[in-house]
Amino acid sequence: MRIQIQQSKAVGLLAALTIAAILVSVTFLIWRLRASELEHARLETQSLTEMLMQQTQQSFEGADLVLQGVQERLSTPFGRQFSLDSAPTHLLLSARVSGMRQMSSIFLVDAQGTVINSSLDFPMPKITVADRDYFKKFAFDGEKSYFISKPMRNRINNDWTLYMARPLFEVNGKFRGVVVAAMSIPQFEQMYQMIKLDYDRPIALYHADGNLIASQPHRDNSIGSFAPELKHEAFPTKGNEVRTIKHVNEEGESEVFSLGRLAKYPLFVSVTDDENLSLASWRETVTPIGMGALLVCIFTASIALFLNSKLKSKEEMAKALRVAKDRYQHTVNSVMDAIVAVDESMHIVLFNPAAERMFNLRASEIVGQSFDILIPDWARTRHHGHVANFIQEETASRPMNPQLEITGKRANGEEFPIESTISKSIIGGKLQMTAVLRDVTAHRHAANELRKVNQQLRNLSTSLQEVREQERTRLSRELHDELGQQLTGLKLSLSWLGTRLKDGRTATPDAVDDMRHLLDGAIASVRRISTELRPLVLDDLGFGDAIAWQTLEFAKLSQLDVKLNLPAENEVKGDALATALFRIVQESLTNVARHANATQVKVDLIVAHDILTLSICDNGQGFQDNAREDGIGLVSMRERATSVGASFNIVNGFGPGLGTGTTIEVTIPVQVLIYVEEKA
Amino acid sequence: MKIDVLVVDDHAIIRDGLKKILADTEDLVVAGEAGNGNVALDKVRERDWGLVVLDISMPGRNGLELIKLIKAERPKLPILIFSMHHEEQYAVRAIRAGACGYLSKEGDSDLILPAMRRVAAGSVFISPKLAELLAMDVSPNTHEQPHTC
Hints:
The structure holds two protein chains of two kinds. By secondary structure, chain A is of the alpha+beta class. In chain A, 52% of the residues lie in helices and 22% in strands. In chain A, strands 1, 2, 3, 4, 5, 6 and 7 form a seven-stranded antiparallel sheet that branches. Chain B is an alpha/beta fold. Chain B has a five-stranded parallel sheet, sandwiched between helices. Chain B has helices spanning 12-23, 37-46, 63-73, 87-97, 112-120, 128-136, and strands at residues 3-8, 28-34, 51-54, 79-83, 101-104. Chains A and B meet through helix 11 and helix 12 of A and helix 1 of B.
């Protein structure tokens, strides 16, 4: 049971663990890939920054070298021979600027701030640049080295231009003018654009004060003003230093920002890497991995669900089976009838508790053994015959023929009758026979008892019939012999008298007296016979006197010594009780006279402990046991006693400790007496 | 000469009654009486009798048996049955057994003397009712002793 449940749970658990492991490892892998991708992008951004710094530095160095060359040239004694606006100077400028792509032109400004020569045109139209910072720096601030201007639009084609300038001095050191290289900002931007990467990374060039010089992509509005992305940055203070920071921009995207300071110039280069973009290739890599992992998870989950439902249905089936089995077991165990099932070879496969009780055998001992153990040896052959017949029969179930007695044998060898119903069924392709057995010992016993009682009743009925017939025979004989003869005698006497009178003769009064005596005798006979029909004496005298008269008569006839002791005679009220007791006394006395061979009889009627007891004892030969059950007189006495609620007993012995003899004892509780009386 | 009559009846009353009636007659006299069959047989063997008046129901041998025994001793001795029983019950059998007459005690008491005289004279005394019964008795069982009356 437990194992079954664990199976389905284990499958679920295993699947969950597998899925979790897959998810964790894949997540870890993806996270690692992302981290490494980000690290890679960061390093790339950083090295890109360094590269751009070098390239930018080279550009500025190139421009500076040109400026220094022009400065040197114009500061030599030879150079000083030419005026700044001369053609040779223009040639010098043109020669120097050629091949320098980062420089759109190089021009000379005189001490008054007027452009007097240019690499572009000669003669140069006079344009004043006295308002420009690169002029003011040298003319008024006395800067001796170089200057990089703010980005501004040039006055020729209005392009964004950055100016790098160096001063020119007279021999006496007097400020002579400024040589200026116009560096095209679009040129820088173009250079930055030429760096082809997997994806675009914004690049920017700043002035040391944070003003934007150039950027890729181009930000026209921001050029010359403070770059917003530098707002929170701490500027690198030393050359060649690259600082890489991660921050979140205004749009909420994570960015890697790399800022480096050029070694020789107050310029900064930055590369911004949008993490989103840098993770694009990571995404491409990760998507199939993720999808694959997801598919594996789904597959695992489906398999687990499938297995789970399979196992669950199996468990439910097992449970249903268990419930059915329990119910079956409970039913089989709780029925009062014994149930025994056997297989084809008559080996016991089922033996319920009722069967255990019936046969006094444990199921554990008997299951697997032959059914023959439960049958006495002598009945086996016949039982085998029954079973063989039953197997052949079409019917699935039938009671064993009740006429054929089936006998079982208990563990102690005791045999007992069984009523059985047998059925057969095919279980698992094999024949099984199931017998429901009922121990009918008690039933048989009761049936026997009933039969016995019935027999007694029949005997009683027959005996009553016989008694009545005897009584009638006797009465008939008495009527015939006594009364009939007396009347015939009287008739003869009358005939004689009649004849005498007719003949005119006389008759003596003696003759009439004789006839009256005859008549008296006839009347006495009538009285006697009617008394025998019904003890009128009982009605006339009451119970005590009636018994006294009866015993006196009996003593006279039987010559027995009869003692009468009736202290409780007044307790006997009611005709039914009086008649019953009177008849019992009569019958007992008759029995004594007929069978007892006694010389003494004692009749007692006493009350003690609220019980009225009538006993008739004789000192005869005692009662024969076999007479006890069948005696007709006894049966009728017992019936009479029972009819008035009394119990009837026969005990041997004349009295306590007096040995042989018989005592017939009728006892009635006084309460019953009262009840009988009320009923009467 | 008077006819000697032997009265066989277990009831003294009946015997006394008959004695009293016969005492008044000229031709009949109760010369002996018996209370049961054995005494009756002894008396029959003792001497000759003119007539035996016999009851059927008696202790010991019954009347019908006694008829045959008496007839065996003295085939010519006439026997008159005087019984409480109805004619229908015993009369035919009594006649067959050898009795010469049957008179029920229930019947007319005045018939007793004519019946005794008739039987003693060697005739048969039967009532009209008994005559009818005998006529109807056509049973083949006829190995009875020849009647002497």
